């Protein structure tokens, strides 16, 4: 479903033009439909870079990314944007809700952009599971952090994407909220039969995933917490 093939990456903007200064070195990874994977590693080890590359947001210097059989970086920009809207959901640490849109309009934003019909039953189910029905006409600024992240999860899953990419999804939440939000994310990703690739610093959060890998010295290794 998601295949990373021999990905190497370095940032020329940081002056790193030599292979020896690679952030990512020859990384391969396969994630099947319905699987969840947590990516751990020290600060600066390249986790977010790998997530961005896997999500079609940052072209790797070397290697290929294949999502449902399509080579992302061989697609024209327009097709790549359409594929991201249709097949991918994103959850970020900073929630990234659109401030001028209500909760329900935030959730439906991606489906409307790709002109896809909304599955009203699924939407109602998501809002009920995430306990955000009562909040649906509010603006993001009228929500707590935990509520905003629950809305962001609904937005990421509303169109039943093939895969959800989550970058530190509980990074701005306290411990107990982190557990409840992570449990909901995992549960709803499973219900949607989506895959999940998640970056986290927290071993406790990583434990929710089917498997855990660690980025170390530009390579992926099995994580001790797995
Ligand atoms: N646009 C960029 N230009 C130059 N260097 C970059 C750029 N983005 C990231 N880097 C560098 O690449 C390395 C990996 O960054 P990345 O954000 O992927 O790490 P991370 O593991 O996600 O870190 P953290 O856990 O602190 O978020 C870091 O050394 C960072 O400074």
From TrEMBL:
Keywords: ATP-binding, Nucleotide-binding, Transport. SUPFAM superfamilies: P-loop containing nucleoside triphosphate hydrolases. It comes from the Bacteria. Pfam families: ABC_tran. Signal peptide: none annotated. Residues 2-226 form the ABC transporter domain. GO terms for cellular component: plasma membrane. InterPro entries: AAA+_ATPase (IPR003593), ABC_transporter-like_ATP-bd (IPR003439), ABC_transporter-like_CS (IPR017871), ABC_transpr_LolD-like (IPR015854), MacB-like_ATP-bd (IPR017911), P-loop_NTPase (IPR027417). CDD domains: ABC_MJ0796_LolCDE_FtsE. GO terms for molecular function: ATP binding; ATP hydrolysis activity; transmembrane transporter activity. This is ABC transporter ATP-binding protein. It comes from Neiella marina. The lineage of its organism: Bacteria, Pseudomonadati, Pseudomonadota, Gammaproteobacteria, Alteromonadales.
């Amino acid at each position: 479903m998601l295949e990373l093939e021999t990905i190497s990456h370095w940032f020329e903007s940081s002056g790193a033009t030599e292979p020896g200064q690679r952030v990512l070195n020859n990384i391969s990874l396969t994630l099947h439909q319905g699987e969840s994977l947590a990516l751990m590693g020290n600060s600066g080890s390249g986790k977010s870079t790998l997530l961005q590359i896997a999500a079609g947001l940052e072209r790797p210097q070397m290697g290929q990314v294949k999502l449902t059989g399509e080579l992302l970086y061989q697609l024209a920009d327009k097709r790549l944007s359409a594929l991201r809207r249709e097949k991918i959901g994103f959850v970020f640490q900073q929630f990234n809700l659109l401030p001028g849109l209500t909760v329900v309009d935030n959730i439906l934003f991606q489906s409307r952009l790709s002109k896809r019909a909304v599955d009203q039953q699924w939407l109602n189910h998501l809002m009920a599971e995430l306990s955000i029905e009562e909040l649906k006409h509010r603006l993001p600024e009228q929500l707590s952090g935990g509520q905003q992240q629950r809305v962001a999860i609904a937005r990421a899953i509303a169109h039943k994407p093939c895969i959800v990419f989550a970058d530190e999804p509980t990074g701005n939440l306290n411990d107990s909220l982190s557990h409840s939000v992570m449990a909901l994310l995992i549960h709803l990703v499973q219900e949607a039969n989506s895959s999940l690739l998640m970056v986290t610093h927290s071993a406790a959060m990583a434990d929710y995933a089917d498997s855990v890998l660690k980025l170390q010295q530009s390579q992926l290794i099995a994580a001790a917490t797995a």
